[in-house]
Amino acid sequence: MDEKKTAILAEIPRLRRYARALLRDKDAADDLVQDSLERALTRLDNWRTGENPRRWLFTIMHHLFVDQMRKVSRRGGNATVPVEAAENLPSAATQQDSFAVRDILDALEAISPERRAAIMMVAVEGFSYAEAANILGIPAGTLMSRIARGREELRGLLDDAARRRTFRIVER
């Protein structure tokens, strides 16, 4: 039993990275990770000893994420930030590299959650197409289509962002 818990604990950094990429909100991502770990620990007997828990944990997290998105869409809710938290909001960085990172994160946020999840599973988390399709509960062809369309959409968004940065407003 301790071996299973130790293996699960080792996956927390990957779970947090994926949750933050999906939600773009540190607190909401941490809540999703906590909910995923809680569910995993209550259903520990569903995981086979000797297997890597990564796929199992990401499947749990994905299902919880989809459930959250459904709840939000039913309520029609928008994410809000309390006025008290406004002073803790990050400010724009001045480094040139941060522009590219911000553009990529903004572009990822702009694409649909389904495409973002597919791209994150394969490109960031390193799952094979078959593993990612299994985790997301979709056929491999659908996953490949989401990745291809997501990448194309990202290219377009990033090209637009690069063009906007090249224009300068000149005062007379």
Structural features, described:
The protein is mainly alpha-helical and 172 residues long. It has two domains: 1-87, Orthogonal Bundle (Rna Polymerase Sigma Factor, Chain: A), CATH 1.10.1740; 97-172, Orthogonal Bundle (Arc Repressor Mutant, subunit A). The chain has eight helices and no strands. It has helices at residues 2-10, 12-23, 26-42, 54-75, 96-110, 113-124, 129-136, 140-166. The mean pLDDT is 81.
Share of residues in helices: over 70%
Contiguous uncertain segments of 5+ residues: none
N-C termini distance: 72 Å
By DSSP (H or I, 4+ residues per run), the number of helices equals 8
The CATH class name of the largest domain reads Mainly Alpha
Give a quick set of tags describing it.
single chain; 172 residues; mainly alpha; Rna Polymerase Sigma Factor, Chain: A; Arc Repressor Mutant, subunit A; 2 domains; 8 helices
How does the SSE layout of this entry go?
Blueprint: H1 2-10, H2 12-23, H3 26-42, H4 54-75, H5 96-110, H6 113-124, H7 129-136, H8 140-166
Helix pairs in contact: 2-3, 3-4, 4-7, 5-8, 6-7, 6-8, 7-8
Summarize the structure.
This protein is mainly alpha-helical. It has helices spanning 2-10, 12-23, 26-42, 54-75, 96-110, 113-124, 129-136, 140-166. α3 packs across α4 and α7 packs across α8.
